[in-house]
Write a structure and sequence with these properties.
Strand content: 5-15%
Distance between the termini: 56 Å
Number of domains: 2
Number of strands: 3
Radius of gyration: 20 Å
Structural class: mainly alpha
Helix content: 55-70%
Order of helices and strands: HHHHEHHEE
Largest sheet: 3 strands, antiparallel
Shape: flat
Number of helices: 6
Length: 199
């Protein structure tokens, strides 16, 4: 039986192959969409979604990234299939796929940095919460909670992203500020997250 890391390695390969196969299909090099590869990916994603509690932080973070990448590809391919059926195929598909690849590379870089260990207090600021910075803050806060032995079961990237967007908007409106700073602290056995406006 494959280990979780081996499964995630294979999942990453399958997602990469799926993109290649779909590009071949849309380009006329394949007679049918690669539904077998899609089925294999979705089976693996479902299996590890059910076993999330057994994965460590890095595995869960990597699984989340792969699941998000696959979801974006799947939506892109769904639109392309619809356009192909309607006989309306745009020429910018390659550029869109490259942008997703760049985004995945940025996420992997953030994951690599997190493996080196985060120093606390960890501070980051923004005028508007872009994806890269939000993920860095999420990694730092999750790392702090794990080091403090606090539960991270309900701390998902999606809910965290929504929280910081709402908090940033709230602080900017209340204080007429242009920039908001978030600070992750680790004091004893307590992880903290503070937000403040920057003058």
């Amino acid at each position: 039986m494959a280990t979780t890391d081996e499964d995630l390695n294979q999942l990453e390969k399958d997602i990469r192959q799926l993109k290649i196969d779909y590009e071949q299909y849309f380009g006329g090099g394949r007679p049918r969409p690669p539904t077998d590869t899609e089925w294999r990916i979705e089976t693996t994603l479902k299996r590890h979604s059910d076993r999330a509690a057994a994965m460590n932080f890095n595995q869960r973070f990597r699984y989340s990234n792969l699941a998000q990448t696959y979801a974006k590809y799947k939506e892109m391919f769904r639109k392309r299939l619809k356009q192909k059926e309607e006989g309306n195929v745009p020429r910018h598909f390659g550029a869109a796929a490259k942008e997703i690849e760049r985004e995945r590379a940025r996420k992997q870089a953030a994951e690599t940095r997190s493996e080196g260990g985060t120093q606390f207090p960890f501070a980051i600021s923004w005028k508007d919460p872009d994806q890269k910075k939000v993920e860095e803050l999420y990694i730092a806060f999750r790392s702090a909670k794990e080091k403090a032995s606090e539960s991270t079961e309900k701390l998902t990237l999606e809910t965290f992203q929504q929280f910081v967007r709402d908090k940033t908007d709230e602080l900017k409106k209340q204080n007429n500020a242009h920039e908001v700073e978030y600070v992750v602290t680790l004091e004893g056995k307590h992880a903290g997250l503070k937000a403040r406006v920057k003058s």
